[in-house]
Every structure is written in C-alpha cells, then in structure tokens.
C-alpha cells in the first residue's frame, strides 16, 4: 500500500506511472487537502482512495511518498503518523528538505530523499535518490522502482542533490529556453512561426533520442559539423556568444541557490 501525500501534477504523474507498472488502484491512497483537486483525482482514477488528510489513510502502509511543498512537509508527515508502520518507507520528493529533517519527522523509519524533474509528467524523468541511515537495500530498490515508473533513476550521496537540482532539476527550463530562442531564430530568418516551432520541437526530440542511443554528445556534434559548413559557422557564433560558459554558470548558480534554500 502506498500513501501519497500531495496529489498535484508530480503526484499525479507518479500515480499514472505506478498503475502502468502494475500497482493496483486499490493499493494507492492519496492525501490531498484541496477539495477540487480531490474530485479531479477521483474522476481520473475512480478506484483510488482520495482523502483530505493522511490521518484518514489505512494503517501500516508500505510507503509514504511525500510530494507536497517543502513548507508543508512537517504538517503532512505529522498527519500521516497513524498510517505509518514500524518499517514504512518515507520517500520524499520535496526539494530542500534534508534526510536529517525527514528522519526527525518520521523517527525510526527508513528514509529516501529524491529529486525528480518535470519530464515525469510524460514518463521521461531524470531522478536521483539518496538514502538515509536506516534505509536498507530493499528500501532503496523500492524507492528506485517507484520513481523508475516515470523515468530513469540514479543513486547519489545526499551532498550531491543540490548539484542534481541545479543540473537535471532545473535543466528542463534551460532546454525550454533554448527551444524558445530557436523558434524565434526560425521566425527571424523567414519561417512561419508554426513551421519553426514544429521543426524545433522535432529537432530537440530527435536529437535527444539519438543522444540517448549513442551516449556521446561530442562525437555526435562532430558528426553534424562539416569543415567550413553551415553548422560550423553557427557553432562559431555560439562559442563567441559564450553559450557554453553561460550553461556552466547557470548550473552553478542553480546549485548554489539550492544549497541556500536548504539552509
């Protein structure tokens, strides 16, 4: 039995992934305080139990997944105490809430802290997990399985989760900004906006698919870049404009901000 604290977009993405990976609807209970959102969840998945508070959940759940805002984590876990068994796994995707804080809020329970990203909404998340001191290999495998239902999962030390946040957590926004800029560039050189958008979206999708297959961005870039050709001219302008350095600085800045928020 899974108790999901928070039925927002990320919570709903997880539910969809769990159901597709074999969990039964009656094995999931969602604690969602907003009445309208509860109705939406009940309409989408009639077999799932949706309650206003985890205090209403069944006792001795196997996993409590914390998917609320960081400021609401303490209250959500306090309300979830009646549902916690002695070995219930606490899996948190709340940004900035440390393993130590989670272990204080759910004493004696194994804790795994995770950082997924928004492509979880289309089952293409990049997630990282870090285990607390009481988490066994079975707990970690269970957490990886639950997050693996919406994408790929890597294991890291908790000290690296701020870097994960700066890279893959914020990374989709960097990609979307690049997409916006490329569409505008297409319009600038004369393409109709819908045509530019279609070409850019498919180019990004195709490039990501190719990269996932080949795993070597430098070689793929070189493969596209003929000596003295159009791509070489375009890449020269990107280097002159400091695009590579800007991406390095963006990830560093987001990582630093994540550390600040964690404090």
Give the low-confidence spans.
Answer: none
Query: Helical element count?
Result: 11
Which strand order do you get reading across the main beta sheet? 3-2-1-4-5-6-7-8
Supply the CATH superfamily name of the largest domain: NAD(P)-binding Rossmann-like Domain
Give a short account of the largest sheet.
Answer: 8 strands, mixed
Structural class comes to alpha/beta
Radius of gyration: 21 Å
CATH overall fold name of the largest domain? Rossmann fold
Fraction in beta strands: 15-25%
Top CATH class of the largest domain: Alpha Beta
CATH architecture of the largest domain: 3-Layer(aba) Sandwich
Series of secondary-structure elements, N-terminal to C-terminal: EHEHEEHEHEEHEHHHHHH
How does the overall form come out from the CA principal axes?
elongated
Multimeric organization: single chain
Distance between the termini: 33 Å
- Count the beta strands: 8
In the residues, how many domains can be counted?
A: 2
Helical content (DSSP H or I, runs of 4+): 40-55%
């Amino acid at each position: 039995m899974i108790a999901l604290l928070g039925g927002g977009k990320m919570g709903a993405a997880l539910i969809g992934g769990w159901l597709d990976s074999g969990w039964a609807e009656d094995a999931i209970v969602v604690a969602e305080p907003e009445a309208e959102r509860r109705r939406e969840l009940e309409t989408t998945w009639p077999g799932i139990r949706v309650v206003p508070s985890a205090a209403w959940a069944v006792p001795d759940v196997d996993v409590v997944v914390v998917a609320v805002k960081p400021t609401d984590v303490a209250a959500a876990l306090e309300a979830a105490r009646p549902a916690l068994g002695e070995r219930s796994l606490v899996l948190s995707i709340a940004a900035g809430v440390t393993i130590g804080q989670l272990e204080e809020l759910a004493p004696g329970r194994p804790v795994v802290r995770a950082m997924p990203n928004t492509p979880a909404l289309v089952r293409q998340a990049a997630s990282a997990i870090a285990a607390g001191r009481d988490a066994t290999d079975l707990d970690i495998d269970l957490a990886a399985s639950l997050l693996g239902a919406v994408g790929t999962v890597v294991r890291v030390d908790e000290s690296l989760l701020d870097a994960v946040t700066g890279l893959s957590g914020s990374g989709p926004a960097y990609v979307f900004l690049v997409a916006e800029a490329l569409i505008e560039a297409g319009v600038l050189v004369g393409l109709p906006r819908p045509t530019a958008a279609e070409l850019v979206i498919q180019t990004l999708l195709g490039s990501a698919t190719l990269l996932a297959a080949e795993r070597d961005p430098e070689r793929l870039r070189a493969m596209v870049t003929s000596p003295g050709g159009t791509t070489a001219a375009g890449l020269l302008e990107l280097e002159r404009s400091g695009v590579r350095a800007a991406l390095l600085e963006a990830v560093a800045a987001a990582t630093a901000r994540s550390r600040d928020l964690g404090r």
